[in-house]
Structures are given as C-alpha cells and as structure tokens.
Amino acid sequence: MSNDLLIGLVGFALVSAFSPGPNNLMLLSSGMNFGWRKSVPHILGIAIGFPVMIFGVGMGITQIFEAYPVSLVFMKVLSAVYLIYLAYKIASTRPSGVDAEIKNSRPLTFVQAAAFQWVNPKAWAMALTAISAYTIANNMLLSVFIVIFVFLAVGMMSANTWTIIGLKLRIFLSNPVAFRAFNISCALILVATLYPVLTGAFV
User: Fold this and answer.
1) Using CA atoms, how far apart are residues 150 and 156, in angstroms rounded to an integer?
2) Which residue from 14, 49, 31, 48 is spatially nearest to 160, judged by alpha carbons?
3) Mean of the pLDDT values across residues 92-118?
C-alpha cells in the first residue's frame, strides 16, 4: 500500500469513526449512564467487532447478499428492529440516585456490541467503502489487514473518547429531568440513523 493510500485510509478512518453514528451515540449514552469502567466491554466490543466485520467484507461475505437477496432484506429488518429496541432501552433508562447509578439496567456486553456491528448501517457503509477504496486487488489479504489495523487503532480511540464525553456530561445532567431529556434525545437520534435502511442505502 502506497503512502498516499495509507494517509487517505487513516483520514477516512478518523472522520468516519469519530463522526456521530449508532455506535458513538450508544457509547455517549453508556458513558453518561454507567461510567467508563462499566462501559469497557461495550468499548472493546465495538473496537474489535468492527475490524472483524471488515475482514468478513474483505473476504467477500457480501456475495451472500448478491446470491440470496432475501438475506439482505432479513438484515435490514433485523437492523431496524434492534436499533429501535436499543433506542427504547436508552430512552427508558432513569437515574436512581444523585450519582446517577442505574437501576434494572446495564451496558452492552462485549458480544452484544460486537454483534451489533453486523446490523449497524453506518458500520456497513464504512466497511464497504474502506474495502473498495483502500485495498489493492493484487495484494488483497495484506491490504485488508492494513485496513483492519488502522480501524482497530482509530476505533479504540474513538470509542473511548465518546464514552468519556458521556461520562463528563454527568456534571451538567445531574438533574433527573435533564438526564431523562438527554436519554430521550439520544434515543430519537439513534432511530433517525435508520434512514439509510429505510431508503434502501444499506449495503
């Protein structure tokens, strides 16, 4: 991979990983509601799960959608249902005390966060763009692993940053009404990210 292509890849990874999307909105909410330490499995699930998804895309997993169009429809429906479920969970989270500990709720686990990448519209767009634009056909495997390494590093930074921002927001949202309004806002924005799925732009 040339230096120019690598620089382009790093730039794309930084912009796409740090920009708002389902993962970052949920990390923001998780940091706010549960704190950084309890959100670590969620952070790792995203930071590791997405590179695994990139590997799958790089190895041609999207050919399944081409061979079996019904599987793409299934993925879209699953994506929409799961995003709405997560939005509901975020919106219904309430503080149980002054320090905003959460009752009857918990952050996503490592497996849940990693599995979510496969129904995340933004993750699909990122993975497909990265593989199509920043890999070399005559050295595909090495190119895919370079893309994976870049997104692993950038993804870890992005996931931690958004979680810490959410944690810091606790200072300003100690009021239960403000806390509730924050969670509902995050939930509504998360539902809005379904637009690519509903308009057919997913995969």
Assistant:
1) 10
2) 31
3) 71
Confidence of residue 38 (pLDDT cuts 50, 70, 90): very high
What distances in angstroms separate CA 110 from CA 47, 123, 199, one per listed residue?
10, 17, 30
- With beta carbons less than 8 A apart as the criterion, state whether 47 and 155 touch: yes
Residues with Cβ < 8 Å from 120, sequence gap 6 or more?
A: 21, 22, 23, 79
Beta strands in 35-138 (DSSP E): none
The whole-angstrom separation of Cα 22 and Cα 37 is: 20
At 85, the amino acid letter reads: Y
Does 23 have pLDDT greater than 60? yes
3-state secondary structure at position 118: helix
pLDDT-derived band at 160, boundaries 50, 70, 90: very high
